[in-house]
Amino acid sequence: MAGTNDPVPTDEHGVPLPVAQAADGPTAHAAGTLTIPEPAPRRRGDALRGLFLGPVFWRDIRIASRTRATYIMRGVVVLVLFCVLAIAYAAVHAEADSRTSPAQRLQELQVIAPALSITLMWFYFTVFPIMAATGLGGVALERKRGTLSVLAATPMSPASIVLSTMTARLLQVALLFGATLPAVIIVAGYGGMETASVLTGGAIILSTIVLAAACGSFGSVLAKTPASAASTGISLLLLVNFYPVFIMMIAALFGAGGAFMTGGWMMTMFMASPFFTLLATDGIGAGGAPFYTPLWLHVAVSLAISGGLLTACVVRWRPIVRGAMAGPPPKVRLSRKARRAAAEAEAKRLAAQAAVGSPSLAAEPEPGVAVELPAATDSTVRTASASRTVGDQPVLWRELQQLIPWKSKKSLVISALPFAVLGIIYYNTKPGDEGVVTAVSLFSLAMGVLACCGSASGSISSEVLGRTLPLLLTSRLNVRQILLSKFLGAWLRVWPLAAVTLTAIVVSSLFGGVRIIAVVPILMIFAAATAMMASASLLGAVLFRRPSMAGWFAVLCGLAIWAMPFPAIGIVYLLLMGSRGRGPMEFFDVFCSFNPFYLMGETVSQLERSSRFSVRWPSNAQTGTDVWILILALFVAAATVWTIVALRLARSRFETNVLKRLV
Amino acid sequence: MIELTNLSKSFGQHIALQAVTLTIGEGECFGFIGPNGAGKSTTMKILAGLLTPTTGSAKVCGRSVITEPDAVRPLIGYMPDFLGVYEDLTVDEYLQFFASAFLIPRAKRRSTVDGVLQLVDLTDKRDAMVDSLSRGMQQRLGVARVLLHDPKVLLLDEPASGLDPRARIELRELILELRRMGKTLMVSSHILSELAEMTTSLGIIEKGRMLFAGSVEEAFRKANIGDRIEVKLELEPGSDVRGHHMAMAERLRRDERIAGAEFADGTLLVDLAATAEGGGHSHHFLIAAILEAGGRIAAFTPRSVKLEDAFLRLTKGALN
Ligand SMILES: Nc1ncnc2c1ncn2[C@@H]1O[C@H](COP(=O)(O)OP(=O)(O)OP(=O)(O)O)[C@@H](O)[C@H]1O
Ligand SMILES: [Mg+2]
């Protein structure tokens, strides 16, 4: 009888575990006696197989094949892919809409094939690495499940655990690729791409997927919670891709000039970034690429980084597991007053000791004699200096507790950081520059949306994993209250980011940049977008078990909501193309701007007092103020409707989906 | 207080509970016994409103768990077989959190939390982080949590699991204390001797079927269990120990007051049948019978009857 959650499946797959062989081995079944089986003779390749296709690999594969979410996910990805392709198709059509003669049509077809191939390539480049970097479980998840100790007690090597987890994830990505094959065939039917480009793109994407899986493994081994494992992996992946931009930004902040930016070493730096390498070779960006790296060098660098990250995982595995088993380090939250009191007590104790006992004994305790018994007993139990008072909405209270920055030094520093960066920026720019407002508001929107993506789903799944949800459900809180509290908690937690934006706007308006009224629409957009994401994430957590799945669901929901109008518009446009000239094109543009990031930039452009400064949002020429207000209103309305619908859906699916998981 | 009528629950093809009917009166302490996977936790989850039964009804204080969950929740304290902890809260905050979740007014929360902490003897751990408590302390914290809203009915799913012997005794005292407070308890366990000392009635469940429900005495009577006596015969050195004992067992089995006799580990194990009234036979007749058969008694050790034996007897027949 194999338990479904058996951490070490030991059967027909020739898993090289002694226990597994005991079941199959010919010598095992002498009646009533226990015979230790002979270890099977080692064959060539066994070591490698154990490393990459170890027991953990088979476990993960089976779990994935058994969960419905895996299949839903594949379906959703395929759906999104087709949406994206439809958009690309419509966009190319839109560009070529004035050509109507057969010759021009032919020309158009020639444009469409590469456009579709490149869309497909970039789609793979975005989705697959992120897939590979998330959902790796890792130490945090094993610990939450309670399987970490079991896993750590097996003779499996850390390398086998880390690498097998990774191969299992890579296989999932490969299966996902299989699911999208029809799209590949369609694109090939349109003429496809040159073989050389396909090979180049494929090599870059493949090495990036491996790199991403390594980043994910790194996050999953180092992170303390499953949710932070995924976000660590993603952050690392983003860093590897966009570090040149960060370096340039920092350099620009400190006033570096163009010579520095286009200097030789700056260019060589790009070589490790998969994003810029693909951009330089994809056929579109190639013309304007600032550098050229030999493909083999890039792939080698990617693989070397992956190797380094994986080695770090393997080396750190045992110490980290040991740390995790010992529980979190004694984290004593002491107020300054309590610390002073403790210090005084300690001083008093020492003084008393010096007065009473002989000084030599106090200075040199005899070996083996426990001198500080009270301290020893205290250290086994982590204590806080004082318990806080819980509010009337307990679930919300707990969510918001994690927000208050002055509780710990670390979070205080983190929350002060954005303001410090803002200060540096102002030091180097003109204080009224609305470009700063654009950048800051876009940045905090992006961070807010990302944070909402993870936190709502993370908090639900940690209630499930920590087994506290049944306790909540048997209390007098009902499901609606619990979900609403979780939603509000996740949503309100990102508002400090809005405070940064607010500061930027106020400063800018004081120095004659953006009009102060911009606060209203910008906060509206921020609120609407983050609420939408938080509710999508909550719905994801109700529908899916894994925190990373839930986060993904939220991302895809967001993309789908923003992309949803496109296919429809594309179809309408195609129908109307010949007869109405550029009319539908305007419509198309309007709908392209139907997303919070665009709206944010547009809002700043609309509400600046003058255009004295060079940094400008690429405002759509055709979008007048009336259209902008219309889109803004539409977006806020759509986000509100979505939030309400998602929360209701989460509520109604809760019983069937989450309760089933609990019991 | 608790009424289950024809309660059934199936998970897909698998039937976890099969037409369970059970009544537990006010102030009773009902011990729920059964092997792993028998359906104990499933029953408790249904009563706690976490699962909906496939058929049948479950009532607490005359209110249906299924149709009026909101009315039943304040009446029930459910302690699952695992303790859910929030690792970022202290003991005090944890209890306040649930006090608030049970809609205890803010003014009364402080005293309520103090009260239950005192009851489970965790007052000095008030500011400790919940996940740093030992298993036994966490278990006590679980009991404290369940008592916060002063429920009439307590459902404790394996409260003693993971506790050391001393903690078990403390838990038993605590449960006896709760009984004195007039609470109705349903306690599941695998360890019968423990239950025997604190329960007033007993339910035995296996493979989703209620095999027995009633008072502890009734369980013994129904199992038809008398005493078990270990007898050692004194024999000449070098004689056939096994043969002599086996022969004696053979003779004793003919007596209708003796339910069974067998030889194991060098001693003769004799099970006395229960009398018609449910009491036991006096042991003297056995001594007489052995002497009469020509045996010399080297040792005669009556063993007290165990609930375990009753349990085995009751469940053995049902398996087939
Ligand atoms: N969510 C579920 N899905 C499918 N089957 C389940 C589920 N929960 C319980 N079961 C099955 O129902 C039966 C009863 O389980 P239950 O947990 O009530 O047993 P139990 O008596 O509490 O056992 P234990 O002593 O091990 O705690 C078992 O056979 C179990 O496999
Ligand atoms: Mg159970």
Describe this structure in words.
The complex is a heterodimer of chains A (663) and B (320). Chain A is mainly α and 663 residues long. Chain A has 30 helices and no strands. Chain A is globular. The two termini of chain A are 20 Å apart. Chain B contains 11 helices and 14 strands. Chain B is elongated and about 80 Å long. The two termini of chain B are 33 Å apart. The A-B interface holds A 327-328, 331, 380-395, 397-398, 401-402, 463, 466-478, 659, 662-663 and B 42, 45, 48-51, 70, 73-74, 76, 78, 80, 82-93, 96-103, 106, 109, 125-129, 131-133, 145, 149. The site of magnesium ion has 4 residues of chain B, from α1.
Concise structural overview:
The complex is a heterodimer of chains A (663) and B (320). Helix content of chain A is 72%, strand content 0%.
The pair of chains with the biggest contact is:
A-B, 40 and 44 residues
Rg of Cα set of chain A: 29 Å
Based on the structure, what is the oligomeric state of the protein chains? heterodimer
Strand order of the largest sheet of chain B: 6-7-8-3-9-10
Largest sheet of chain B: 6 strands, mixed
How many β-strand runs of chain A?
A: 0
**Rounded average pLDDT of chain A:** 73
In the CATH hierarchy, what is the architecture of the largest domain in chain B at level 2? 3-Layer(aba) Sandwich
Question: In whole angstroms, how far apart are the ends of chain A?
Answer: 20 Å
How far apart the termini of chain B lie comes to 33 Å
Topology:
The complex is a heterodimer of chains A (663) and B (320).
Chain A: H1 18-24, H2 46-52, H3 55-66, H4 68-95, H5 102-133, H6 138-145, H7 148-152, H8 158-179, H9 181-189, H10 195-222, H11 226-253, H12 258-261, H13 264-269, H14 274-281, H15 295-325, H16 336-356, H17 359-363, H18 373-380, H19 394-401, H20 409-428, H21 434-465, H22 469-473, H23 479-492, H24 495-510, H25 519-543, H26 547-563, H27 565-576, H28 583-592, H29 596-607, H30 625-662
Helix pairs in contact in A: 3-8, 4-5, 4-26, 4-27, 5-8, 5-9, 5-10, 6-10, 8-10, 8-15, 10-11, 10-14, 10-15, 19-23, 21-23, 21-24, 21-25, 21-26, 21-29, 23-25, 23-30, 24-25, 25-26, 25-29, 25-30, 27-28, 29-30
Chain B: E1 2-11, E2 14-24, E3 29-33, H1 40-47, E4 55-60, E5 63-64, H2 69-72, E6 76-79, H3 91-101, H4 106-119, H5 135-147, E7 153-157, H6 165-180, E8 184-189, H7 192-198, E9 201-206, E10 209-215, H8 216-223, E11 228-233, H9 241-252, E12 258-264, E13 267-272, H10 284-292, E14 297-303, H11 307-319
Parallel strand pairs in B: 3-8, 3-9, 6-7, 7-8
Antiparallel strand pairs in B: 1-2, 1-4, 4-5, 9-10, 11-13, 11-14, 12-13
Helix pairs in contact in B: 3-4, 4-5, 8-11
Bound molecules: adenosine-5'-triphosphate and magnesium ion.
